[in-house]
């Protein structure tokens, strides 16, 4: 273990985990720091967009509920429409089998 930074030998330089480490570049130049700042800002913008979309979806469900639709059922339909047709048919067949076994 080196005298410098405790735990340095166990962590290594991170190059093998990250495909080449920009850590030295950040310390020596502002180029990698600028790139890092840009990545962070992109993620922050995407998180803002994701929250806005989530709010919009919540508003649509609230509107549906106000018009008398059963939101729980609509959410299930949305999930089902995302599934592959064959996958959905298989799941429904298993559901029918289990319900039959339980005399439902």
From TrEMBL:
GapR-like DNA-binding domain location: 32-103
Ranges in coiled-coil conformation: 29-63
GO terms for MF: DNA binding
Pfam families in alphabetical order: GapR_DNA-bd
Acyltransferase among keywords: no
This protein's UniProt keywords: Coiled coil
Annotated segments matching region Disordered: 1-28
InterPro entries, A to Z: GapR-like (IPR018753), GapR-like_DNA-bd (IPR046367), SerRS_1_N_sf (IPR042103)
Transmembrane segments: none
Family that this chain belongs to: Belongs to the UPF0335 family.
Identification of the protein by name: UPF0335 protein Bind_3227
Native source species: Beijerinckia indica subsp. indica (strain ATCC 9039 / DSM 1715 / NCIMB 8712)
């Amino acid at each position: 273990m080196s005298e410098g930074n405790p735990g340095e030998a166990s962590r290594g330089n991170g190059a093998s985990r990250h495909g080449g480490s920009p850590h030295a570049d950040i310390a020596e130049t502002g180029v990698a720091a600028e790139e890092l700042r840009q990545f962070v800002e992109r993620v922050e913008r995407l998180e803002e967009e994701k929250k806005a979309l989530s709010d919009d979806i919540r508003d649509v469900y609230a509107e549906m509920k106000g018009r008398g639709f059963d939101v729980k059922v609509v959410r299930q339909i949305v999930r089902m429409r995302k599934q592959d047709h064959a996958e959905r048919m298989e799941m429904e067949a298993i559901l029918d089998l289990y319900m039959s076994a339980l005399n439902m």
